[in-house]
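TEACHING EXERCISE
Course module: macromolecular assemblies
Task: Read the component lines below, then compare them to the predicted structure of the full complex.
Student: A.B.
Group: 4
Components provided:
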Amino acid sequence: MWDWAFTFEILPTLAKAAVISIEATLFGFVLAATLGLVLALLRIAFPWTAWPISVLVELIRSTPLLIQIFFLYFVFPSFGVTLDAFTAGVLALGIHYAAYCSEVYRAGFDNIPRGQWEASIALNLSPWTTFRDIIIPQAIPPIVPALGNYLVALFKETPLLSAIAVLELMQTAKIIGSETFRYTEPITLVGLFFLAMSLVSATFIRAAERLLNRRPAR
Amino acid sequence: MGIRTLIVMLVASILLIAYLATRDTYSLFLPGLLQGAALTAQITVLGCLLAVAMAILSALGKLYGPTPIRWLANLYIEIFRGTSALVQLFWLFFVLPQFGVSLDPFAVAVLGLGLNIGAYGAECVRGAIQSVARGQWEAATALNMTRIQMLRRIILPQAFIAMIPPWGNLFIELLKSTALVSLITLSDLAFKAQQMNQTTMKTIPIFTLVLLIYLVLSLLITIGMRLLEQRAAKGLARGRTA
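Instructor-supplied answer key:
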């Protein structure tokens, strides 16, 4: 059933592919975190953008990521921009999770007491300074664990990139499987790898949560 | 978003699909896509049923089961929450046959997605059960109910209300995950889209329709769950004042 020699033979190949998965996760998450912040800020800053952005967020959140990946990968060429599979995949991951992250940021901003805004106005701070120095430093720390959860969720979605033939973990496992007719070891290893990574990152998130809760109350 | 906005979005997207259906570039694809959507809906409904059953069983196992059952429930929850849905589907599809268990793709889809979402649901069932006030248990004990009676007649009906909003999100997650079954050869909505895209290269009309159909399906779930929530909450208020 389980061939240890074969397991050790494919391990280096899978390890190399794991690097691609992790790269996609990090790039995707940086995009998601920044774009999500921009969406959340636009929603607050200008009343006329609030409605279109909330419809956009709802749209992105209620359609499957896989379809969005296909959409970006196949639609961009028809506008004359050809994206390679990795870029299209990272873009799709980033945009999809930006929609989720923007809701998290929004919750963070909603938790800032009104008095903070009013005090900033009283101090004659510009809206930009208010956001940069008053609101964001208070709003971000409490939502770090929630963002961390989305980082893990995004990581677990990277196997979808195999559908547009990005050579990440799942795609590599599938190729090994189709070349050797042995699926048991590669796919089980991929599963174990994700399980290990999720358990480790869950520990980190819990630690971050504890650290943030220890901060003196405002 | 308020329920009215959601209904407006639902009506708008249905009208948009109907309008697009009158145009040649779009109407060509609609029948095939709707066929796929029917399969998607079927997998979603069956997957949701399995997910709810697994979630309740494993949450009860984790909370009140004897040690081995608690251990088993924990193992199930951690494994299915810790790995990706696609890996789970591939494992059931490619690896399980090597151990002598061959399931057809449809069964794999329902089983894989149901078990995956069920593991997430277990945590929300557990949270809801624990959110029921302690006094309810104590009162039920005072009334000399057995543990099963307490759970069935007192605790679960109250926990049910707290569970509805998170389950709404999970059902939408499940709907979206059904797109993955296209990768294990089922011809659902995502599969049809890809197939048509490969043969005709009319990417924009095909994927616009597909996104709209998914949107309609998930709005139906959201609106349904909101209505259920309203109904359930109303029952609670009546129960308390009476």
